[in-house]
Structures are given as structure tokens and as C-alpha cells.
Design brief:
- The protein is an alpha+beta fold and 318 residues long.
- The protein has 2 domains: 67 residues; 177 residues, Glucose Permease (Domain IIA) (Distorted Sandwich).
- It contains 6 helices and 14 strands.
- The strands form 3 sheets. Strands 3, 6, 7, 8, 9, 10, 11, 12, 13 and 14 form a 10-stranded antiparallel beta sheet that branches.
- A hairpin with a 5-residue loop joins strand 8 and strand 9.
- Helix 1 runs parallel beside helix 2.
- It is rod-shaped.
- The termini are far apart.
Length: 318
């Protein structure tokens, strides 16, 4: 058996032959094969590692973008939280103001809320009482029938400006220029509208209100309302003048309860701000009974009383 093989090498110096053992040949063959496998594995490993590195880089970039987006959302969240906190602070200040205002309203109404009573319950309680207040102010004469400019002659005994004798003045003479609009001071039915000879009031409007109240508007220049008509508080009735026994333009205004005259001045001043004052000033009227009688009545869209002028605020103590 031949265990040798010959390697022939030709070069410029001639031909050289080398005899190698067959085992060496096999060793070289396997070494070459091994190196080839190693090369393939190395190339495959390099390609795999490169792909993994690319994948890791893509993931890194994605994570970085997610982190940046999260940071941006975090900023927006902080900004939103700051905005919400600012709004909460504003709402808290508003609620504090509302609570203070509600306290003033409660004091005006004579309410004494229980300590630590929830704000909503206080509002509901004030609303109920304000509805009762609105009912009385709608049905019972309140506020000024004209834009208030002052009084020329008070309710009570006086020397009559025309007759020149002492007599009881049933109403209040309110200062007004000729043709000043005159408005109803409560809901009611027009009982009389026209010229009234016997009273000396000249052109006169009488309105019958609920619960035994009547109002008289005298010495008018022109009456625009008709008898037997229903009027709401604030409706136009007439224009001021100097008809009848009058010494000059003004409005004679009377308020009567059960046919008895009462001082109109307290009714002219009567509004939500001075709500309790009339109960102390006018003792001839059973206020508690009236409040009880109207407690179940709610007036939709009540009419606001005529606002008093600055000159009246200066007369508050008079």
C-alpha cells in the first residue's frame, strides 16, 4: 500500500519533487476544511451580530424617542396640573367671595345658618327665603313709583298748601317734573283711572292689590291705564302733573291697608336691601300673617323695585 504522495514544483531553477506522507495530506485537507467551516461560522456570526446591533440600535432610538415623548407628556401633565391648581385656587377665591356675599344676604334676611352648614344648603335656604321676599315685594307695594328725587310734603299732619289749614296728609308728595312717568309698585287691578272731583286729587289712579292693599297716584297730567285692567309691578300708569288742588307739579302717592292710610315712605324705601326695615317701621300691618299667607306662592320672573336715587340714600336716616 502506497502511503506517500509526490508534490512537484516547477520554477526557473528546474523541477523539484517532494514526497509527502499520506497522513500529512489528510491533515492538510481537514485543516483546510476546518478553516473553511470556521470562516463560514465567523462570517455568519458577524452578520448575525451586525443584525442584532442594528436591531438594538433601532430599539435604542425607539426607547429614546419614547423617553423624549414621555418627557414631553410629563411637561404637559405638569403644566395641566399647574393650570388645574391655579383654577382651583381661583374657584376657591370665588367660593370664598360667594360665601362672604351669601353671609351678607343671610344677614339681610335674618338667617342664622348652622355652623359648618354646606354651601349648597345655605344657597338653597337663601333661595327659599329670597323667593318669599320676591313674592311679598311683587304683591305688596314696594319701591318708588317714579325716579326718586325727594319729598316735598311728608305723610301726617300739615298745613294744606292750597287751603292753608291744618289737616292730615294721607300720602307723600314726591318731587317730580311735569310728565314724569309713573309706574305700578305692585301687581293689582286698576280700581279707578280718571279725573276725581271730590278728592281734589285731579287725575287719579287707584290700584287694588292683594291682601287688602291699595295705592293712590294723584295730581296726574295724563293717565294711560284703563279701569279694570290688570297691571304688573313696573307697568306704566300715567305721567305726573298738577291737576286738582295742587300748587305745582309733583306726585301724590298713598298706600292704604284695609282702607287705612299708612306711611308710604317706608314702602317707597322697601326693597331687598331694606327688606326687614319696614317690619320695624310700620307696625299697623300684620306682617307675620302676610308672610305665612304668601309662603307657598312663588312668583316667576319677579319685577325689581325701582332703584332709589342717590338723594334718597342721603335721606336714609331721616
Amino acid at each position: 500500500m502506497n502511503n506517500h504522495f509526490t508534490v512537484t514544483i516547477n520554477d526557473d531553477n528546474g523541477v523539484k519533487q517532494y514526497n509527502l506522507h499520506h497522513f500529512v495530506k489528510q491533515a492538510i485537507k481537514y485543516a483546510a476544511l476546518f478553516l473553511g467551516v470556521i470562516a463560514v461560522i465567523s462570517i455568519g456570526t458577524i452578520l448575525y451580530l451586525n443584525s442584532e446591533v442594528d436591531a438594538i440600535e433601532i430599539k435604542r432610538i425607539k426607547k429614546q424617542n419614547d423617553y423624549l415623548a414621555l418627557q414631553e407628556k410629563n411637561k404637559e401633565l405638569h403644566s395641566s396640573i399647574d393650570g388645574a391648581q391655579n383654577k382651583l385656587e381661583e374657584k376657591k377665591k370665588e367660593l370664598d367671595k360667594i360665601s362672604d356675599s351669601l353671609s351678607d344676604i343671610e344677614e339681610l334676611m335674618g338667617l342664622s345658618p348652622i355652623e359648618d352648614m354646606p354651601l349648597q344648603k345655605r344657597v338653597d335656604l337663601a333661595k327659599l327665603n329670597s323667593e318669599d321676599m320676591a313674592t311679598l315685594l311683587q304683591f305688596i307695594p314696594s319701591g318708588s313709583p317714579i325716579i326718586y328725587k325727594g319729598i316735598t310734603s311728608k305723610y301726617g299732619y300739615r298745613i294744606h298748601p292750597t287751603l292753608k289749614r291744618k289737616e292730615f296728609h294721607r300720602g307723600t308728595d314726591m318731587k317730580a317734573k311735569m310728565s314724569t312717568p309713573v309706574y305700578a309698585t305692585a301687581d293689582g287691578i286698576v280700581d279707578y283711572a280718571g279725573y276725581h272731583k271730590k278728592s281734589g286729587y285731579g287725575n287719579l289712579v287707584i290700584i287694588q292689590h292683594n291682601y287688602g292693599f291699595k295705592t293712590y297716584f294723584g295730581h296726574l297730567k295724563k293717565v294711560v291705564i284703563k279701569s279694570r285692567k290688570f297691571v304688573r309691578k313696573g307697568d306704566l300708569l300715567a305721567y305726573t302733573g298738577s291737576s286738582g288742588m295742587s300748587s305745582g307739579p309733583h306726585l301724590h302717592y298713598e298706600v292704604r291697608f284695609m282702607s287705612r292710610p299708612v306711611n308710604p315712605f317706608w314702602f317707597v324705601k322697601w326693597d331687598a336691601q331694606n327688606y326687614n326695615q319696614i317690619f320695624e317701621k310700620e307696625k299697623k300691618i300684620p306682617w307675620q300673617s302676610l308672610i305665612t299667607a304668601t309662603a307657598h306662592i312663588k312668583v316667576p320672573n319677579p319685577t325689581r323695585a325701582q332703584l332709589l336715587s342717590q338723594s334718597d340714600h342721603q335721606l336714609k336716616g331721616k
